[in-house]
What we know:
Layout: E1 6-8, E2 14-15, E3 19-22, E4 25-28, E5 33-34, E6 37-39, E7 49-55, E8 59-68, E9 79-88, E10 92-101, E11 107-109, E12 112-114, E13 116-117, E14 127-130, E15 134-138, E16 144-150, E17 158-159, E18 166-170, E19 179-183, E20 188-192, E21 200-204, E22 212-217, H1 223-226, E23 231-233, E24 238-249
Antiparallel strand pairs: 1-12, 2-6, 3-4, 5-6, 7-8, 8-9, 9-10, 10-24, 11-23, 13-22, 14-17, 14-19, 15-16, 15-18, 18-21, 19-20, 20-24, 21-22
Amino acid sequence: NGFKSAKLSPFVCRMKNGEYVHQGTAHKIKKHYLGDSAIHGLIYDATFTIKDSGADNEKAYVTLAYNYNKKEEGFPFAFSMEVSYMLSEENKLTLITKVTNTGEGEMPLSDGWHPYFCLGETVNSLKVEFNSKVMIEFTDGLIPSGNKLPYSTFNSFKTFGDTFLDNCFVLENFEAVACSIKDETTGLQLDIIPSASYPYLQIYTPPHRKSIAIENLSSVPDAFNNGIGLITAKPGEVYTFTTAYQLKTL
């Protein structure tokens, strides 16, 4: 329900009609749909195995592994994935994803996360800031139109209030925190710090407004069709995606 903390891969968010063409061949996704769109990739419910884990005085970590090869789902390509979670000092959680094309040909690839965050009773009381000045324009079906729009509402901390978002934003400065949310009542602040491997930020506020989804993405939605941020993964190549979350007290 809500794809809470789901891993998004090999495509992110929505794919229009669940259809795409790769190197002249048409494919149709046969997994989960919302309306007319296939959504959130193919491995959100996959069972990973523990490859490695450990802890010392500075950090604790676990690395999980999964191999995909399910041609019947409309993605006839093979890949392996390793996901590492590392909790280090100062309440910092770093997530590293490594995707390897284990097939014989090139394959399309996008990667992302779908975590939700709750710092207080409701998102209305949050103060929100993210370092984007560009929003991807969506159609009514939440598919990118191909246009970009200026957006500056949360370039500095501002009370979220009754703002509703289900939008994708372009990140600009990877030396800075991409997004911060804080609740002054609970005295908590969360900073989200992706690498340049995640140049897009999708933000979604569910109707209950008890939490907010802040998703790091390697591409915009429907990238298999629009090509914006899409990776053409070569056989044997490893593609790495990194983001971090740091929790602070005010």
